[in-house]
């Protein structure tokens, strides 16, 4: 008769450190993708923010305040409209002005806005960002 040995596994829950590492990895991955996108033709810059930090990389630093305001306002407005009309989760918000257009979206807790010239290929940028 063969005796079966019972394997005992000890599982230790380390949710906070793993979460912190995952968040840092996600933020670094996003930042890497944004650095790549920043070099696309027509891209003016980006804003990446979460609850603990913000990164702003714009070709024209005199526009930082203007772009920060429109970035925050567009994400909030998109969420408010989505809730008001019961549309579900907002995937992205596109704003097109006279000379510039902007794509805003959220990845986990990271809020991202990419600014580009009006003639830039926003579909190319969206395809790159869908991999996040």
**Structural class category:** alpha+beta
| CATH level 1 class label | Alpha Beta
- Biggest sheet: strand arrangement: 2-1-5-4-3
Radius of gyration: 20 Å
Main sheet attributes: strand count, strand direction, barrel closure: 5 strands, antiparallel
Average pLDDT over all residues: 81
Number of helices: 3
- Portion in beta strands: 15-25%
CATH topology: Beta-Lactamase
Query: Distance between the terminal alpha carbons, to the nearest Å?
Result: 54 Å
- Under the CATH scheme, which architecture would be assigned? 2-Layer Sandwich
Overall body shape: globular
| Helix residue percentage | 40-55%
Count of individual beta strands: 5
Task: Estimate nothing, just give the exact number of structural domains.
Answer: 1
Query: pLDDT under 50 segments (min length 5)?
Result: 6-22
Assigned CATH superfamily: Dynein light chain 2a, cytoplasmic
How are helices and strands ordered from N to C?
Answer: HEEHEEEH
Describe the secondary-structure layout.
Blueprint: H1 15-38, E1 43-49, E2 54-58, H2 64-84, E3 93-96, E4 100-107, E5 110-117, H3 122-129
Describe the structure.
- The protein is an alpha+beta fold and 132 residues long.
- It is built from three helices and five strands.
- The chain has a five-stranded antiparallel beta sheet with strand order 2-1-5-4-3, sandwiched between helices.
Briefly summarize what is shown:
With 132 residues, the chain is an alpha+beta fold.
């Amino acid at each position: 008769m063969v005796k079966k040995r019972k394997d005992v596994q000890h599982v230790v829950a380390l949710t906070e450190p793993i979460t912190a590492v995952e968040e840092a990895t996600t933020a670094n991955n996003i930042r890497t993708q944004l650095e790549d996108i920043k070099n696309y033709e027509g891209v003016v810059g980006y804003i990446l923010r979460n609850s603990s930090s913000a990164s702003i990389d714009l070709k024209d630093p005199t526009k930082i305040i203007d772009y920060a305001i429109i970035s925050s306002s567009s994400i909030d407005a998109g969420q408010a409209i989505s809730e008001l009309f019961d549309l579900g989760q907002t995937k992205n918000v596109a704003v097109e002005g006279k000379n510039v257009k902007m794509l805003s979206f959220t990845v986990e807790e990271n809020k991202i806005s990419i600014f580009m010239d009006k003639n830039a290929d926003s579909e190319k940028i969206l395809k790159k960002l869908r991999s996040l």
